[in-house]
Amino acid sequence: MDRTTTPTRALILWAHPRTRSTMTERCFIARPDILPFHEPMGDAYYWGPERISLRFSAERCAKEYKEYENETFMSVWKKITSPPAGKVCFSKEMAQCLFVPGKHVDTVPKLHEEDGNPTLIPTSELLAPGIVHAFLIRTPSKAVPSWYKKVMSPSTAGFDSFDPEELGIHETRKLYEFIASKSPSPPLLIESDDIVEHSEDVLRVLCESSGIGYDPGMLNWQASINDARKLFAKYPEIEVEKSSGIIKNLNAAAESEADLPSEVQDAIDKNMADYSWMKERAYRFS
Q1: Triad 145, 277, 12: Cα angle to 5°
Q2: pLDDT attached to residue 1
Q3: 107, 163, 215, 228: least CB-packed within 10 angstroms?
């Protein structure tokens, strides 16, 4: 993309659960020139009038999530790609929220074009000038057990069971492949351990590849705690005061197979090939 003629309107960071994506997001909330969004495509996917997921019934959505009754996939997309003057939108999103899962409700919107686009967003919108895509991945041996523990916690946005279809690793690969196939160069792909090991380098490359310029203040979140508190208001499990910067802990030890339920280990095994394929294409920071 020629940034001299097409200023960046939106940077969308696509991830799957438990990739340190919220930690990365916090770095962008600290910037006054950024309008941040936290997973709004999930509002349409789980609770909106075009909801696809079976996790929440129509009755529960109407009763407990009424604020999302008008959040369609395209209305959310327009919101996260239409910044006010002087700002760039930054939206951290779960890639699987652009795809129809194997098990879904009947009211699936028909939005994508017939050009091999596997998502619910038309190619003309997904790849519109000024929209920059980046991707964040993590090995299933760490991401899947972490997601299992999170969704089994009663504080996690109404989730109370483990559904392997919500892991999103395969969908992250599919989205990356499609965007790469339609772009002059593939989008930036980051392995989440690099966020911890090479924090400044990752942010610098991410910003520069997006045409928005790196700001050293992104590494310190103390001044943006109030902004983060507002952004994460519907996610009480995100403790915004718990840290003021990237935590230097790789949490390297994967759980023993003997300690994992069989459905979790099966999900790890099933997703490893997609992760390995993406890992080979990730940016090398060292």
Answers
A1: 75
A2: 39
A3: 107
Q: How far apart are CA 202 and CA 222, in angstroms?
A: 20
CB neighbours of residue 68 within 10 Å: 20
C-alpha distances (whole Å) from 137 to each of 231, 276, 277 are 23, 10, 11
Q: What is the pLDDT of residues 222-255, one digit of tens each?
A: 766 777 777 877 776 666 556 677 876 655 455 5
DSSP single-letter state for residue 119: S
| Short-list 153, 93, 155, CA closest to 120 | 93
pTM of the model: 0.90
Q: Distance between CA atoms of 46 and 54, rounded to whole angstroms?
A: 8
Token couple for 254? 């994967």
Q: Lowest-pLDDT range, 86-90, 148-152, 176-180, 188-192?
A: 148-152
